[in-house]
């Protein structure tokens, strides 16, 4: 099924994907109208990529990341709230629990775009190379970095390189469903903390770490019609004024491949392009034309 530098044992891979699917189902039961965000968190972890969450306060951005990371006993979370006076050195100081930016597999930076520009640009090699220069390069165990904010950067901020490191970008909005709204406001305060309780795969797969690097470098075959569809997608987006760099198209290919892998496919099919919305947009105004174009791939 998979060719690549490291062939993965199929039963281990199947077990991993099954466990992630169960986590997704369990989270969808507890979080209303957050299916797209939850799926993107899982795909990002599989792809060794990063996620940006944007939405007004109180839309469960932080809670989703804490709950998601809580399913993995062997993965640690480093979380911090950034602000205008934050310094990169602050992130290197261990917390009371002994965690720091350099020691955890999942990193969550809340209010990420309130941080000074120098701090964010100082994280580029950390996110891209999994190395932190201090001043010599230090390898880090980072799998995925999650950033959250209620505002996106503007081109004038000079943060395009940092923003581009977030392969997945998700918008969270206040709940619209009456049923989900009442479910949310009447839940007990510890409901989400108990979501991972009794989860029999909670510490699942001690060899999870050995699987992830192979997945990030995997190669599923792309059908000829999927390649044609990708090129047509590029043309259609250009006609709508949506520009995507060649570097980001490589991320698009990775994201489509991970879509296929997570769905248990043996090759990348045209319908696996339909779930790429949150990999393609840079600014919210681009979402509607992207959705319209992708609807033809379902």
TrEMBL record:
Cited Gene3D superfamilies: P-loop containing nucleotide triphosphate hydrolases
Domain MoxR residue range list: 20-178
UniProt cross-references to InterPro entries, sorted A to Z: MoxR, P-loop_NTPase, RavA-like_AAA_lid, RavA_ATPases
Organism domain of life: Bacteria
ATPase RavA-like AAA lid domain boundaries: 228-293
Membrane spanning residue stretches: none
Descriptive protein name: Putative MoxR-like ATPase
Originating organism: Leptospirillum ferrooxidans (strain C2-3)
